[in-house]
Design the sequence.
């Protein structure tokens, strides 16, 4: 088929959105440094969607610096697989587009079905392709079905954002330029162009979840929500935009704390752990000499744990010094003298004063009319994250806990007005900056 004839037909066809979407993709995806332009392969199954995509790509490829080819993956799962392969070969000869065929063996493995195994096999083929991008024919209706399936599985924001317009398999870009185009418009394009395609008999099998959504659930939804596909696809875009905003915010937060930004993949993994964590989950992500932690739905950048393993046995005796350097706890304990402040010196003189770490089960009475309560509960009420609590020193007089950093002193040991006292002050080391 001559390019001129293809172009004349395309100009007059219905479903012009297919061509417009592909033109935008070719305009934006460029590899100017590569000889012959970007190497782009259309993933061709032989179905209506991919046939229409390849036809439109063949029409437009001459307008852009693009080296166009097609890529067919033969899974061997259908008795008609060889016939589909032959159809794709004939179509590509007619369109004058080079075709690459890859035959794969797919088998269901433990914990995954044939659908998932086939997807993984295709992805491996895409990642190994010698192209800059593989273009997929996923459209708006596919996106809506994907979002609905993900939500039914209990997915979070990442699943609710559906398929991305541009992702990657290894070093190969995976592009989905038709995500804003409905199945009906693609069908109109195919009909106007007089295109032929093959029908995969498995598309009628409602034992497959996507087919159940497509043939049973979708039509039922359409009786009450005629534009449910558009609505879900729009929600996917909004979730995806929110994710992009989250990435930008996380990058800025890391920069403000003097930390290097991770790779795109590393950033995505960070966000996934942070976003999908439960409110009570102890998320701890090490990065560039710091720790990203979640506490009460807040992201906190803290110093990397530097408390030695023996800190629980750490015990330092106070002999009246103004300051005690406590490397095991990561800071300095200052003891400020005064009148009517802090701990009563006379009471302290009755026993040996030591600084220790938590061992569990400690209790403290912060007010004269208050009961003794566990440090765990007091720390929780004070909003002190769990990872900081082991680093907070405790002061004992004999075997009595009389002061806890971050909380305060034992009420029975408080200096009365006019009495000599000593007020502890805990000053932790400044958190390290990124390297």
Sequence:
């Amino acid at each position: 088929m001559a390019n001129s004839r293809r172009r004349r037909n395309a100009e007059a066809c219905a479903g012009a959105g297919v061509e417009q979407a592909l033109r935008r993709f070719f305009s934006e995806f460029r590899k100017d440094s590569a000889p012959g332009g970007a190497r782009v392969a259309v993933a061709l199954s032989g179905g209506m969607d991919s046939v229409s995509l390849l036809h439109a790509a063949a029409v437009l490829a001459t307008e852009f610096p693009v080296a166009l080819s097609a890529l067919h993956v033969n899974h061997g799962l259908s008795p008609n697989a060889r016939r589909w392969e032959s159809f794709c070969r004939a179509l590509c000869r007619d369109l004058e587009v080079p075709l690459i065929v890859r035959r794969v063996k797919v088998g269901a493995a433990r914990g995954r079905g044939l659908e998932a195994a086939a997807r993984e096999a295709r992805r491996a083929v895409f990642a190994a392709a010698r192209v800059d991008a593989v273009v997929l024919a996923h459209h708006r209706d596919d996106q809506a079905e994907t979002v609905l399936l993900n939500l039914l599985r209990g997915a979070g924001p990442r699943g609710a954002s559906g398929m991305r317009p541009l992702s990657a398999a290894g070093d190969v870009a995976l592009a989905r330029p038709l995500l804003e185009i409905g199945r009906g418009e693609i069908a109109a394009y195919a009909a106007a162009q007089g295109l032929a395609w093959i029908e995969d008999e498995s598309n009628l099998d409602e034992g497959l979840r996507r087919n159940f959504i497509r043939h049973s659930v979708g039509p039922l939804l359409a009786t009450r929500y005629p534009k449910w596909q558009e609505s879900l696809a729009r929600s996917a875009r909004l979730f995806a935009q929110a994710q992009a905003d989250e990435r930008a915010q996380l990058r800025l937060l890391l920069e403000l704390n003097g930390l290097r930004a991770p790779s795109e993949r590393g950033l995505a993994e960070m966000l996934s752990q942070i976003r999908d964590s439960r409110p009570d989950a102890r998320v701890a992500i090490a990065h560039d000499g710091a720790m990203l932690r979640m506490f009460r739905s807040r992201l906190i950048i803290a110093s990397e744990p530097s408390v030695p393993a023996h800190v629980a046995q750490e015990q330092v005796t106070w002999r009246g010094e103004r300051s005690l350097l406590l490397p095991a706890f990561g800071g300095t304990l200052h003891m400020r003298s005064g009148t009517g402040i802090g701990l009563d010196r006379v009471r302290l003189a009755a026993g040996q004063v030591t600084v220790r770490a938590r061992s569990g089960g400690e209790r403290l009475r912060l007010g004269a009319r208050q009961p003794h309560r566990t440090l765990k509960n007091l720390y929780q009420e004070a909003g002190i994250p769990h990872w900081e609590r082991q680093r907070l020193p405790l002061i004992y007089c004999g075997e009595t806990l009389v002061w806890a950093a971050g909380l305060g002193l034992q009420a029975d040991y408080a200096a009365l007005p006019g009495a000599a006292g000593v007020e502890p002050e805990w000053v932790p080391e400044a958190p390290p900056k990124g390297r």
User: Anything to note?
Assistant: The radius of gyration is 33 Å. Residues 315 and 356 are 5 Å apart (CA to CA).
